[in-house]
């Protein structure tokens, strides 16, 4: 360990040796010995020092400096990873189980560990339960970076009802949403509502493409209601009777999603 770096970073944070010792749960003498090079902290204390001073382990463990000072340290890297994982993760698992799964399972990374490449690629925590919350979540109701469940919320979500940045489900809501019924900035499905809506049956959006398409720029095989004309956005009520009747006909479709019906009804209010 580079004792100069430890001393410098402690002073930058405004801690005296006594205050820093109390912060990490050791004696002032222990801190003094570390900074004078008489001893080195245990792995768990090294992790704690790194977190409290907001610097990396690599920054503190300066190999070139240690070689110059003829300091030889046996450093168990696997032990370090296990200690770091224990320190930087949170897990709760309820004792109550249903269908062989815990009722609630929470398991996620916290702190700076979330932003390290090794964690993103290898050490994401997985939660499996009826209600699952974690870096990766699998269950009935799930919340996570990567989420799979009947009701799923996440950065990447997969399930029956999904909400996420990237969302794939029967009912899908997200920035990019793909599903039977989808709502999003980019929405793709049998029915789609979005800025860009691409669908088989009904699409409503700024750009809409489907058999039945309603949008500022639209392309529909059966019904094509283009609201953008002459560089202006037209009201649906100013369209011809055929277009209005076509939209009214869509409203009687029992399979049309509720949100799309709400939007179409609002467009028909003149």
UniProtKB/TrEMBL annotation:
Family matches, as Pfam families: HTH_3
SMART domains attached to this UniProt entry: HTH_XRE
Entries under InterPro entries matching the protein: Cro/C1-type_HTH (IPR001387), Lambda_DNA-bd_dom_sf (IPR010982)
Spans through the membrane: 137-158, 170-190
PROSITE patterns: HTH_CROC1 (PS50943)
CDD domains reported in the protein's UniProt record: HTH_XRE
Listed GO MF terms: DNA binding
Alphabetical list of Gene3D superfamilies matching this protein: lambda repressor-like DNA-binding domains
Ranges for domain HTH cro/C1-type: 6-60
Keywords carried by this UniProt record: DNA-binding, Membrane, Transmembrane, Transmembrane helix
PANTHER family from the UniProt entry: HTH-TYPE TRANSCRIPTIONAL REGULATOR XRE (PTHR46558:SF11), TRACRIPTIONAL REGULATORY PROTEIN-RELATED-RELATED (PTHR46558)
Name of the protein in its database record: HTH cro/C1-type domain-containing protein
Organism field: Erysipelothrix larvae
Taxonomy of the source species: Bacteria, Bacillati, Bacillota, Erysipelotrichia, Erysipelotrichales
């Amino acid at each position: 360990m580079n004792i100069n770096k430890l001393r410098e970073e402690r002073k930058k944070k405004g801690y005296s040796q006594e205050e820093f010792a109390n912060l990490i749960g050791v004696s002032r003498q222990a801190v003094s010995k570390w900074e004078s090079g008489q001893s080195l902290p245990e792995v768990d204390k090294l992790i704690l020092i790194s977190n409290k001073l907001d610097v990396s382990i690599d920054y503190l463990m300066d190999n070139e400096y240690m070689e110059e000072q003829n300091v030889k340290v046996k450093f168990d890297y696997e032990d370090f990873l296990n200690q770091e994982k224990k320190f930087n993760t949170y897990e709760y698992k309820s004792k109550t189980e249903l269908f062989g799964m815990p009722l609630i399972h929470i398991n996620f990374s916290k702190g700076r560990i979330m932003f390290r490449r090794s964690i993103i690629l290898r050490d994401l925590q997985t939660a499996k339960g009826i209600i699952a919350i974690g870096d990766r979540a699998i269950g009935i109701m799930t919340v996570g970076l990567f989420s799979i469940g009947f009701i799923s919320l996440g950065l990447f979500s997969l399930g029956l009802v999904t909400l996420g940045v990237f969302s794939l489900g029967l009912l899908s809501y997200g920035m990019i949403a793909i599903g039977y019924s989808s709502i999003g900035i980019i929405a793709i499905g049998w029915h789609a509502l979005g800025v860009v809506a691409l669908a088989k049956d009904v699409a409503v959006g700024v750009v809409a493409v489907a058999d039945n398409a309603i949008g500022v720029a639209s392309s529909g095989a059966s019904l094509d209601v283009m609201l953008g004309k002459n560089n202006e956005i037209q009201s649906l009520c100013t369209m011809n009777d055929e277009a209005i009747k076509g939209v009214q006909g869509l409203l009687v479709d029992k399979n049309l999603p509720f949100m799309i019906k709400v939007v179409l009804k609002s467009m028909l209010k003149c």
